[in-house]
C-alpha cells in the first residue's frame, strides 16, 4: 500500500464509492472469487487514492474478460458440509489479519466471505484461531438451516 | 416488498396462489420455469439439479460508470479444474453412506 499516493477529487471519489458498492453486490451474489479484492477496495471508499483507482481498474479488467463465467451451486451429498477457512497475519496497515472462508456441499460454494479481522492478534497462530472463530458461525447457521429443511447433516468437516 | 419467490413441488398450487394474488393486486411481472431474473441476478436452473447465477449486467454497469479504459487482460491466481479435496470428499461421503446403510 502506497501511503504517499495522490488522493482523488470528490467527483472521482463518489464514482469510486458507487462502483465498489456495485462490485460488492456482484462479489457477494455471483462472483465470490473476487471477494478478496472487493473487500480491500471497500476499506478505502472514504479516502480513495490513485493507487486504488488502478486497483479497481484491474479488477474491472478481470471481470470484463471473465464476464460470461457463471457461479454454479449444487450438491453431491446433502449429508456433509465442508468448511474451508484460512487467515493471513498482519496484512493490513493497522496490523490486523485477513480471513477467508467458504462452505460447500460438493459443487460450487454455498457461502463465501473474505474480510478483515475485527480483533488484533500477536502471532500467526492467534490469527488462525481468530479467523476460525469469525467464520465458523456461518457454517453453524448453514447447519441449522439444513436441519430446519428436514435434512440432517451427518458430517461437518473443517479443512 | 417488490420482489418475491414462490416455490412448491406441485405447480398447480403455485398457479392457484398466483391467481389469488393477481386478483387482488394486478400488474405483476411473473416468470416461471427454469430461467429467472431476481434482484438483478440471472438464475438458470440446470437439469442436473444445479443452479447457475450470473450478474453480467451489473458488471457492465460498473464498467460503463467507471469511465476508465477497460481493455487490458488481468491475471488471477485462481486455480482451474477440480482440486484434490473433491476426491477426498467423495471417498468420505461414500464411506459414510455405507456405514449408515449397515
Descriptive notes:
The complex is a heterodimer of chains A (159) and B (102). With 159 residues, chain A is of the alpha+beta class. Chain A has helices spanning 10-29, 35-42, 50-65, 124-148, and strands at 71-75, 80-88, 98-104, 106-107, 109-116, 155-158. In chain A, strands 5-3-2-6 form a four-stranded mixed β-sheet. In chain A, helix 1 runs antiparallel to helix 2. Chain A is globular. The relative contact order of chain A is 0.14. The mean pLDDT of chain A is 89. Chain B has 102 residues and is an alpha+beta fold. In chain B, strand 2 and strand 3 form a beta hairpin. The termini of chain B are far apart. The A-B interface holds A 15, 18-19, 22-23, 25-26, 29-31, 33, 53, 56-65, 67-68, 70-77, 79-80, 82, 106-108, 154-155, 157, 159 and B 39-41, 44, 46, 48-56, 58-63, 65-68, 70-76, 78, 85-86, 89-90, 92-93, 96-97, 100.
Helix-residue proportion of chain B? 40-55%
Care to count the β-strands of chain B? 3
- First-residue to last-residue Cα separation of chain B: 49 Å
Total DSSP helices of chain A: 4
Structural class determined from secondary elements of chain A: alpha+beta
Largest sheet of chain B: 3 strands, antiparallel
Average of the residue pLDDT scores of chain B: 80
Lateral strand order in the biggest sheet of chain A: 5-3-2-6
Low-confidence stretches of chain B: none
Oligomeric state of the chains in view: heterodimer
User: What's the β-strand tally of chain A?
Assistant: 6
What string gives the helices and strands of chain A in order?
Answer: HHHEEEEEHE
Please state the structural category of chain B: alpha+beta
